[in-house]
Write a structure and sequence with these properties.
- The protein folds into two domains: 5-138, N-terminal domain of MutM-like DNA repair proteins, CATH 3.20.190; 153-274, Helicase, Ruva Protein, domain 3.
- The protein has eight helices and ten strands.
- It has 280 residues and is of the alpha+beta class.
């Protein structure tokens, strides 16, 4: 289950509320070999010892990435991307049985992270942060569709015209014109905009671009206001309240707008659900 921009924002805001100015007392890593091998955790586990004694000074986020900045020029970079459980614990009695990284603060509270899919849990100095792929990817010139005033319709339209590619590639992945979205948001956005998943952006009318832009804003803001997706847990272990209007949850169901049977295709490295009547 992917973690996208809305959930990343929620996590970062909750962390700011709960762990800002806290000092790290100790850490523990378990079951890390696989993640280390593919670069999702530091190759040297002793790198996490550099966090001990550091105080959390600022928490920033962009796209799918959360950067926990500390004093002593240290950072903990989290990128839940394709799934992770990032949880805050008031005491040790509530700690989960499994984690990849556990951080204990001097006040007896904890932060635990366990990746359930591709992602990153990385200890890095200020200098090392700049070389991390996810930082270069998400803290970039590519605009964020939420939270940035310069993400106007005009800019979005211009980027779509320059790229001239399949709509999924324009919303998700390396050539996307925005950061922080994956297949879940994509399916919902294009359904609300009435756009077929195999359309090329070069064929869009101005009205269709407006529908796409407005749908993107609406879907993402609804998810943030609803506390995230309903199959995702926030920092306190609470599920979100947003149920997608299009996606795997619509399997074997009819379109709520027109009554047509929802179809599924393999597209862009994943499964895409859509309405063959509403989406053209």
């Amino acid at each position: 289950m992917s973690v996208e921009l809305p959930e990343t924002q929620i996590l970062a805001e909750q962390m700011t509320d709960k762990i800002l100015e806290k000092k790290i007392k100790s850490y523990d890593t378990t079951d890390t070999a696989k993640l280390q091998k593919i670069g999702f955790m530091n190759k040297k586990l002793k790198d996490y010892a550099r966090l001990v004694g550091c105080k959390v000074k600022e928490i920033t986020y962009r796209g799918n990435v959360i950067r926990i900045q500390m004093n002593k020029k240290m950072n903990l970079v989290l990128c839940p991307d394709y799934g992770a459980k990032i949880l805050y614990h008031k005491n040790k009695e509530t700690l989960p049985k499994k984690h990849h990284l556990k951080v204990e603060f001097t006040d007896g509270t904890y932060l635990t992270i366990r990746q359930t899919g591709m992602g990153l849990v990385y200890s890095a100095t200020d200098q090392e942060v700049e070389d991390l792929y996810v930082i270069k990817r998400d803290f970039s010139d590519t605009p964020s569709p939420v939270g940035e005033h310069d993400f106007t319709f005009e800019r979005f339209s211009e980027l779509l015209d320059v790229k001239g590619q399949n709509i999924k590639a324009a919303i998700v992945g390396k050539t996307a014109v925005v950061v922080g979205l994956s297949n879940a948001a994509f399916q919902e956005i294009i359904y609300k905009a009435g756009i077929h998943p195999k359309r090329n952006t070069s064929t869009f009318t101005d009205d269709e671009k407006h529908e796409l832009y407005d749908s993107m804003k609406q879907v993402l803001n609804e998810r943030i206001c609803s506390g995230g997706k309903d199959n995702w847990l926030n920092l306190y272990g609470e599920p979100g309240r947003h149920t997608p209007v299009m996606g795997p949850n619509m399997k074997d169901k009819d379109c709520p707008a027109c009554g047509a049977g929802i179809e599924k295709i393999a597209h862009g490295g994943g499964q895409v659900y859509f309405c063959p009547r509403c989406q053209r």
